[in-house]
Amino acid sequence: MPHKGDMMTVREIVETLGLAADEDAVRKMAEYNAMVIAMSRKMNLTGIKDAEESLVKNIYDSLTVYEEKYFPKNGRMLDLGTGAGFPGIPLAILRPDMQVVLVDSVLKKLVFIENAAAKLGIKNIKILHIRAEEGGRRRKTRETFDMVTARAVKMLPVIAEWGIPFVKEGGIFAAMKGPGADEELRQSGKILKELKAELMERKELELPTGERRTILYFRKTAPSPKTYPRKVGVAEKKPIIGEA
């Protein structure tokens, strides 16, 4: 960890990652981060209790998934298992033209996100309190998103079964992983093939704290079979594991 005095500001984060964000976007990200930390003292939003540490482990980490080519103009994005709103809120601030839907099974987290976004004037977000397996089958949300993100949620065979049914044909599913991504990827060959998703790109990076991250970008090449996702809880209990 850098010393406290070395911690990055949002402006430095945006510049380090080469992102085009104006002062208003930078301010909103910093204020949102502060609101998350303040609320985390009352309820368990994020395990990180220090605002400066959260700037790196939440804001910086969230923005690493951003690749302009995968985020189409006026497109629709879904953040699955958004927790305290990461990466969904920083991405919504960065791309006000996109509609961003934040999904979580914990209602109080979504209520916090909705209130914080309203205070900050972030108008392009919607919260959706639903289990992933239900949302993936619902006509209004199934195969309707250009980009679906999942950060630090479950192992890849499970999160692929939850996330890919939301992605429209030609869209992208981005799994934000730690250092064990290779093994997870190998175990996911079978389910990825079933769901009609192909690995397009893998991005290896290090946070300023030295922690390693791998982001896997999958393109959906055809509609997923209607049998997926399976009923609530099945993917976790009986994940489809195997090489393609």
3D architecture notes:
- This protein is α/β, with parallel strands linked by helices and 244 residues long.
- The chain has a domain at 70-237: Rossmann fold.
- Helices cover 36% and strands 22% of the residues.
- A 7-stranded mixed sheet has the order 3-2-1-4-5-7-6, with helices on both faces.
- Strand 4, helix 7 (156-163) and strand 5 (167-177) form a beta-alpha-beta unit.
Quick structural overview:
GO terms for molecular function: rRNA (guanine-N7-)-methyltransferase activity. The chain is α/β, with parallel strands linked by helices.
Which structural traits does this protein have?
seven-stranded mixed β-sheet; S-adenosyl-L-methionine; Rossmann fold; about 35% helix; 10 helices; transferase; cytoplasm; about 20% strand; about 240 residues; alpha/beta; rRNA processing
CATH class of the domain at 70-237: Alpha Beta
Strand-residue fraction? 15-25%
| Largest sheet: spatial strand order | 3-2-1-4-5-7-6
Look at the structure and give the mean pLDDT.
Answer: 94
What Rg is obtained from the alpha carbons, in whole angstroms? 17 Å
Number of strands: 7
Q: Mind telling me the CATH superfamily name of the domain at 70-237? A: Vaccinia Virus protein VP39
Oligomeric state as shown: single chain
Gross morphology is globular
**Helix/strand order, N-terminal first:** HHHEHEHEHEHEHHEEH
Uncertain runs:
1-5
- The termini sit apart by 39 Å
Query: Largest sheet, described in full?
Result: 7 strands, mixed
Number of H- or I-type helical stretches: 10
**Corresponding CATH architecture of the domain at 70-237:** 3-Layer(aba) Sandwich
Helix content: 25-40%
GO molecular function: rRNA (guanine-N7-)-methyltransferase activity
EC number: 2.1.1.-
Keywords: Cytoplasm, Methyltransferase, rRNA processing, S-adenosyl-L-methionine, Transferase
Binding site for S-adenosyl-L-methionine: 81, 86, 132-133, 151
